[in-house]
Structures are given as structure tokens and as C-alpha cells.
Write a structure and sequence with these properties.
The structure is a single chain. By secondary structure, this protein is α/β, with parallel strands linked by helices. Helices cover about 35% and strands about 15% of the residues. It has nine helices and nine strands. Strands 2-1-3-4-8-9 form a six-stranded parallel β-sheet, with helices on both faces. The longest helix is centred in the N-terminal third of the chain and has 22 residues. The radius of gyration is 21 Å and the shape is globular.
Length: about 250
Amino acid sequence: MKFQSTAVLASIALVAAAAPAFAQAPAKPSVVIVHGAFADGSDWAKFIPLLQAKGVNVVAVQNPLTSLEDDLAATQRALAAQPGKVVLVGHSWGGVVITQAGDDPKVSGLVYVAALAPDAGQAGGELGKAYPPAPGFAHITADAAGYLKMTQEGIAKHFAQDLPAKTTAVMTATQGPINGKAFEQKVTVAAWKTKPSWFIVSSRDHMIQPAQQTAMAATIGAKVTTLNASHVPQQSQPAQVAAVILDAVNSAK
């Protein structure tokens, strides 16, 4: 009986020792979202609650859009604040930012949403030269300081043509002007070379040619999802965008 009691006590001790390991199972990666030009963090307002409902922590970076360096710094601060792994998401110009910021060891995967995906040594503005100018470019204006904005017609008919007029009016009012020189600044590293990537191609995009998006996705070896959407699928098809990002979250290693 004494032998059996000792064995039982030993078994209990082993279970107790193992319990913390089960209690401390790793949490899901956080999702850090980097918005593009002519936008701000509210661009993701429809999408964020869908991930939060799945228990995913989401942080939307507020890019100053003053330079690539400044946007990188804002994104790096957001990454540093996360407790564990991160899926880094970039829309449009935000793709340039995540291409470099994604080199952070916390980043487990990259998601490009109708985004630019440069190689090391490339600037975002270089990537579309092999394609006809996208229709939305005709609706970009510059101020005396070189900051670029889109006209209300441009937002309504070319940036977010699959959204209601009331929504595009708000988007016009809240857009973040971007310093045009940012498109000339080159990334020094391409994180997609070492991190798994996903790419949402918008087939009705008037800002980045869909053929260009498809080519970039192939170059970076991304898992591709094509949506019949404008340049802002996170607003017109948030559930479909959330599904792609959840795939990246659930694939984290």
C-alpha cells in the first residue's frame, strides 16, 4: 500500500508540474494593420470588429505619411508594443512599409491588401512603370508643400467606387495626405523573402492595376485571394478580407 501511495503522489506531482504548461498555451498572434495613402486608421473600421470577435488583438497604425522613415517608425512602435507574434497587414502604400518593417523577428507573416510589394532597393513609385497609369491617378492633386490628396470625385469613382456616396464623402474628408517624396524612398530589406505572405488582389482596382498586383503576388510567392472589389476591399468586403488575415493568424509558427 505504501508503494501505491507513493506512486499516486508522484503521479499527482507530475500532473501539477505540467499544469502551468497547459495554462500558458501561446495566445493567437496580434494583427497590426498599416493603412495606405489617402486614408487613415479608420479605413479598417468595418474589418477590426470581425477579428476582435474571434479573440484576435488588433492594432491600427496611424501613419503620419510624411516619409517612409516616419511610417516605419510608427509601425515599429506598434510592433514593439505587442506581447508576442504579429501578423503584419499593409494596404496600398502600407505594403511598402510592411515590406521593411516585417523584418522584425516578432512578425510571423505578411498580408498585402491591394498593396505595393517592392524588393530591396526599390521604391514604391517604381513598381507601376511597366503598366498603364491607373485611372485614379488623374484625380490626385498636390499642394505647395508636395503633399498629395485625392479629389472627392477620385475617391467616389476610382478609390472606393463600390461604396455608397455618403461613405466616400467621409473618406474624402478623413483622408491622410501623403508626401509625394515617400514614393521615391527605397526599402532596404524585403521581409517577404523570409516570411510567409498572403496577397489580396482587387480585380476592380483603379489605383494599382490588378495585373500589377497579380505580378507582385507571384514575385513574392504569396498565397493569393482575388476579390471583385475596388481599391478598398477592407471596406467593401470586410468579411472576405478578415478570412484571409485569420488564415495568416492561424498559420503562425
